[in-house]
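This section describes the prediction task in plain terms. A model, or a person checking by hand, is given the sequence of a single protein chain and must write out its three-dimensional structure as a string of tokens. No templates, partner chains or ligands are provided. The sample shown here is typical of the held-out split.
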Amino acid sequence: MTISRPPVGVVLGSALTPEQIPGAGELAEQLGFAAAWVSEDYFFTGGIASAGTILARTNEIDVGLGIVSAVTRHPALLAMEVATLARMHPGRVTAAVGLGLPRWIAQMGLTPESSLAAVRAGVENLRRLLRGEEVTTTKGPFSYDRIKLTHPLPDAPPPVWMGVSGPQMVRLAGEVADGIVVSVMAGVAYVRWARERLAEGADRTSRDPAEIGMNVLTFMSVDEDPARARAAVRHRLAYYLAGRPDSPVTRAYGITEELTAMAAGGPDEVERRMPEQWVDDLAVAGDPAECARKITRLLDAGADTVSLFPCPVERAQDIIRITGRDVLPLIPASYGRKPTGPAGGPAPAPRHH
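The expected answer:
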């Protein structure tokens, strides 16, 4: 980045329509957000098309592509797309690879034998190709026969991050990735837990865990009426919690058993019964000052960037405006663990072979 911005991004895509994404990206840049992350949740909006459009319509803001599934397209094709974007828009692109929601992957008949092996192969080969290496291997779900990019970035490859949740994936990221993107419900306790797992993975390859970035996605609603903001987030949280009542996030907060009982009645029952403490723990909601405090707590816990998923999505542009006007000024641009690089994270990690 060439201007100073607080380490706060915005998540675009999925619930937004394709027509809304370019304008939202432009608005985020104008208002001082550090990054725009474009999600690729199947079968909503395409991440590569969204990232390319935002990059073309803006000048400064970093753009993160993710999470892109390691099994839905050949990593060589992903490398070609990422390299093209990164050469067109130097220093502004980050790609994040993960498995994707298992239900969506199963719908496409792409469930791998080993999720861990599939993601490892995807990340490692994507990084090699972006550096200009020739890849020949049959490890993972795809084969490579002397594949080499014509237009790589050997001197400044874009960072490759991982979308992670469970302990094995977080440790793997500590071994092979430049950073991690974590769940929209990752509160302070989970962020600290994930930092510990990252350090364990980094130790396996003698990496400095401080050089591994963390972008925390979080549901966010800001309003001068804190009750209205909390109600908007509560509705969205209930939908996600009901869909996955047993997860690394719920286990980090010790709520799995209670939530599982609620989830039997569906999202409406979860929304009706969930304690207010869950909203405090799992989202950013309230008036501008309260939202700023919650964002800084996530940064204090170990996040390098906090990227906000506006709730309700129908008010996304309003929430982006209010956040830029009333929340970002309360968070110093120098705040955080280290200077930010592409997509709000640290500079790329040293190359590992």
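For orientation: Residues 83 and 140 are 22 Å apart (CA to CA).
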